[in-house]
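Appendix B. Extra example for self-study. Work through it before the problem class; the solution is given directly after the inputs so you can check yourself.
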Amino acid sequence: MNILEIKDLSFSYDDKSDAVDQASFTIAKGSYTTIIGQNGSGKSTIAKLVIGLLEKKAGTIIVDGLELSSETIDKIRQKVGIVFQNPDNQFIGATVSDDIAFGLENHCVDPKEMDDIIHHFADEVNMLDYLQHEPTKLSGGQKQRVAIAGVLAMAPNILIFDEATSMLDPRGKKEINDLIDEIHEENDMTIISITHDIEEVVHSDHVIVLSEGKVIMEGKPEVVLAKEKELKALSLDVPFAYKLNKALGLKGIKLKEKIHMERLVDELCQLALKK
Amino acid sequence: MPISFKEVSYTYSPKTPFAYEALKGVNVNFTEGKITAIIGSTGSGKTTLVQHLNALLLPSAGEIEVLDRKIKANIPVKDLKSLRKMVGLVFQFPEYQLFEETILKDVCFGPLNFGIEPQEAIKISKEMLRLVGLDESYDERSPLELSGGQKRKVAIAGILAINPQILVLDEPVAGLDPQSSKAMMKLFVELNRRYNKTILIVTHNMEHVLAYSDDVVVVDQGSVIRHVTKDEFFMDDDILNELKIAPPAIINVKAMLKAKGIELKGHHLDLESLTDAIVKEIW
Amino acid sequence: MDSIALGRYIPGTTLIHRLDPRIKILSMLFLLIAIFIPAGFYGYLVITIVSLLALSLAKLRIGFVFKALRPIMIMMIMLMVINVLVVKTGYVIITFLGFEIYSGAIYQTLYIFIRLVLMIVITTILTATTKPLELTLGIEDLLAPFVRFKVPAHEIAMMISIAIRFIPTLIEETQRIMKAQASRGVDLKEGKFKEKIAAILSLIVPLFVSSFQRAEDLANAMEARGYVPDAKRTRYKQLHVDTKDRIILLFVILILVGLIKIAIFI
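Solution. Structure tokens for the complete assembly:
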């Protein structure tokens, strides 16, 4: 079942060229989709269109059976949560608990119920010990975890990460990537991640490649990521496993696995055993 | 000429309840003419360390030598400008320092501040804009209408136009896409090789450390705990584990194979030698 | 930054800290009004005693209050000089460098001085014992009855709290831009007038650009989480008035009424 359907979506910032140009794709419920493409390819613009922060020029966006329009926008914003790139520019509350409460306040949740909800989601992102801390004083990874808790508290069906780890250090990146995996697996949440991290793409279920606002390639990572020539033409990289596979191939070791490093290593081990 | 730190300590907000000792008796000698990567976790003191090089911060204790200049604790620095002309410092997210109406004017701002004649400033600014990959059509455009990556190129050209001998870069590619990052790192290598600039790069990206640096300095909890060549650094499994640094993919393959019982002999820092070693082990 | 005392919150759990922010704001307003009641030196004595009582209850050091006074000292001295030069009532007390200083001037100056100091002390007690967020909540609630007269109480409170939230970020940003421009040879201390203008522009323009960027990002984040400015929303932090709050308010009102009576008798 598709939880997000995008048909012929177009958008323009300046009426001259289209930042999103007749893009169409669907996203299956419970899947983990990554969207890749160079800066300026329209990835973030699509995310903003889906959540109604920008108004489309043409096309349709259907979220969980509901078409996006000015009447449905509030409902759709409840169904789609988004975590943005800059951890410093997306919290409002003076403390972690106030910040998680912000979305609940907007949706008129009874203040008496808020404490329980805040506790539950702060726990889910491992920030229970920081409820009374000021968000400004947290690390980048912690700030993004608070942002995730704030979004999760609104019980969305889809979570969009708009380069949510690109400003974090390696530790912060790992924290957030692990958390995304956990949310995806435990809650069966649909995840859409806009990313530059090719290794994250390897571990997703589905990848969409954008260029100049158009969907250029789409499919399972093992298929899309093996198209070295096409990716190079878009200045995108292939996974390290692909490079290793190719280099070994030139020396006479032919391996089946092209993108997953763990599986490639397993294959090598089996070859070594046969020797 | 030395670029050295001797027992340098630095405390933020001293004598207040918020006092924080960011550097604790740092000793390090950066090698002139090389590309040195400065690594360490967030809050380890990397940024504090590099801001001493052009006296943006003055040490609370200890002494710094930069080329022929000495910076000591509690002694005001004379002739700050000439020091800052020698040491160019590019901040994290340098795109937030652009302010002039045109790109060319913005790049000229530094050289003019340092007393370079207007005509000469324009000449070197144009040269640097071409070097970072922005052609003439950009000269008269407003820096504010560029994309993030292009803005950053302008900001870096603005420091290069000062023609410093030492270039200090604080996470110069943070937040850029992989392609722009690569292009920028290659630019720094060119500056080092062709223009003989000493380059210090604060970075979190181990792939970049492996691909582009000569030396590695590790900062941990306000102290420099290692200063080794890049090869030594990546051959030392202990330090990678100790610092909890996720190693570059090439190094990681060896560890993954080892975990499955295949031990490759020697150290392999490039794809060619790695594949050779695998072939040897498997055939 | 660390030396700024005016308007700064000092964490604590004293009676004054725990008072309802609305009660504290109202008490402050009443005491400020009281300062302007012409009840003579006895009036000021009463308000001074009340202020000192509040200071000691809040466990605030006198030194902290003096720190808060420091930034406006210059203003006070200016006022005094002007008063001494302009006011010519009463009798001449002393002739200083050819200027005749009248007793009226001294009294006037003293009145203004006492009023200013008391005003600052009272507002400092409020800001030092109330978290910025609680202060905003208090203001929002106190303004709520005026919503029917088109006073945007909630919007005002939201704006204040966002401003407070971004102050540390902007200070950090300013410091970073200053250092970045210093690296490009900007020298705010020396240089000619024209160079100084360029130096200031090199700080202000980037600060504006990045603030607009932050504002846009924050607006997006708020909207994405369902914020609609004029829509109905609930509030997580609820304020409660209890017995101690009522007693304090009553006490302050009694003082106000008492001072009005004294003023009438005089």
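Self-check: The beta strands of chain C are 92-96, 99-102. If your reasoning did not lead you there, revisit section 3.
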